[in-house]
Amino acid sequence: QGQLDESGGGLVQAGSSLRLSCAASGRNISDYNMAWYRQAPGKEREIVASISWSGANINYATYSVKHRFTIIRDNAKNTLYLQMNSLEPEDTAMYYCNSDYHNGPYYFNWGPGTQVTVSS
User: Fold this and answer.
1) What is the model's pLDDT at position 110?
2) Which pLDDT score is estimated for 37?
């Protein structure tokens, strides 16, 4: 099972930007469709964005996320990114990456996540 290590979160004001990183080890992300997930307090974990193994197909969970976030993968660096612009308080959550569950089981152990807190 591969390992994941998310980073780049923080406490920011609404309208700010953050770039999250997810470094993988033990498995190559190039073998999998990957995704970013988030879990807000009191809510279940939800998918935010997904990207196919080649990067050719990208999907975002909502209209709002689609026009503010960008999922990027660098297979050579075995790293997944999430560029988040125009952050809103509703984006406050713990963010995680893993393989895209639409394509089977999770192929990586869940990492610690990275906390994003957006103040109004």
Assistant:
1) 96
2) 98
